[in-house]
Amino acid sequence: MKARTRFAPSPTGYMHIGNLRTAIFEYLIAKSNNGQFILRIEDTDQKRKVDGAIDFIYDTLKLCNIKVDEGPNNVGMVGPYIQSERVKIYKEYAEKLVEMGKAYYCFCSEERLEELRKKAQNAKRPFMYDGHCKKYSKDEIEEKIKNGEKYVIRQAMPKYGTSDFEDVVYGKIKVDNSVLEDQILLKSDGYPTYNFANVIDDHLMGITHVIRGNEYLAQTPKYNLLYEAFGWQAPIYIHVPMVLGSDGIKLSKRNGDASFMDLYNDGYLPEAIVNYLVLLGWSPANNQEIFSIDELIANFDPKRISKSPAVYDVKKLNWINFQYLRKMESKKYIEFIKPFLEKTYNLNGKSDEWINKLILLYQNHINYGKEISKEVELFFKKEIDLDEECKSFMQQDGVDQTISIFKEKIKHIEEWTIEKINDVINDVKVEADVKGKMLYMPIRIVTSGIMHGPELADTIYLIGKETILKRLESWE
RNA sequence: GGUCUGUUGGUGAAGUGGUUUAACACGUCGCCCUCUCAAGGCGAUAUUCACGGGUUCGAAACCCGUACAGACUACCA
What we know:
Layout: E1 4-7, H1 17-32, E2 36-39, H2 53-63, H3 87-99, E3 103-106, H4 110-122, H5 138-146, E4 152-155, E5 162-167, E6 171-176, E7 184-186, H6 194-204, E8 209-213, H7 220-230, E9 236-240, E10 243-244, H8 260-265, H9 270-278, H10 293-299, E11 310-311, H11 314-327, H12 330-344, H13 352-361, H14 372-375, H15 388-394, H16 399-411, H17 418-432, H18 437-448, H19 456-463, H20 465-473
Parallel strand pairs: 1-2, 8-9, 10-11
Antiparallel strand pairs: 3-4, 4-7, 5-6
The chain binds one RNA strand through α4, β6, α6, β11 and α11.
């Protein structure tokens, strides 16, 4: 079966990873069924609209290697793809529904609704619109509209019986019709509500699989009633569990790094983010953890989506990103990391060869791009400042001798290469008759000022002859 | 309050009635390697699947109840 899925965000200019994950699931289901992935912008709430949001969504998806087959910027056969440009369509269908007796005009004022709400609250009863406006005749309605009275169109829910449907991940969901409210389909500003627009659009756009957050699970019977009223076939429903923050609360802007762009800017690879996100709430039949997008398409099975919410955990993302980073080709890796280095350090006067070596030195040290800056700090410090641990190490017998031999040898080194530096260290080993810690640590401390760092010869090489000699001179 | 949903270790999770004395991965801890850090290797880390009943020869898995959590209950999506 060919699938058509859709990603239908509202254009708020921000995408948290829960949203992105839904988009990924939608994309994977479309592609694993040889189908299309559609982008539809749900901007029926005009107050929340943000300029440039559509391009932002396209950019994000593109970074993630998710190709939009049809959408506002690459229009297909079932456009327009922005709901605010489809208001005529919704109005037409809403009126059709009224004619069929499945919906009705409602002229109730906000005040009246407010009063009903209060009454319900006082009586500790759930609030439900009372169907007050159902009573108007066709003529009365026409009259009211002619007089410019504001109206909405509400769906007329059945009062008895139950509605059920089958969800791919949650199974059978059953709801009593009596708890379904006569929800608003068309708002008084002429715009449809989400509840209406999504049904009309999904049908008109030929959407076969609806993938969305499980907050819609209990609402779906209402949508099915709409499909039924029009005589349309309801799509396959795949409701997905929420993504929670580490505090166990639903992700939101306030979680900071829960936004894709924040992660991207911190130097997480989009492939790694996608890979991680797919594993939140879904698991493959085998134990594979690292997936290319094509492998995901080949392996994704919506039946294996979990029912319970997943907590977003950066530690695992770090690990996955690290797996991608370490497997990158040197050239690509350097290209990727360099901007993060440039952000914190002035690289003027440093050769490309130096920069590249430095970056490569840390290929298996960092989890994400931004981490490079604190790792390489020692190579940009002018002064070294020994801590207590270093100082006390340097108090030991024989250390001074090791240093002076090293000083002498390194001063007369022929070429400043890692190999030659290693030769010098080896010579010191023989001449001073020390090895292991007693050989390396004194040299390490005097040259770099710290006890922990990458390979000594590399470190010395990158710090540079001039600085090394200066540090050795000022020792004692 | 009502409706719907969920509950396996710090985290992601496997598991659909019987080699499960609960996989795998992240994390954490320990050991090895090593001048150190990182990486890598090895090992430890849930007497038990929210709780209480049942069904069954046998339950994390099936049923019922309770607790807790979340979502929905908007002219938001």
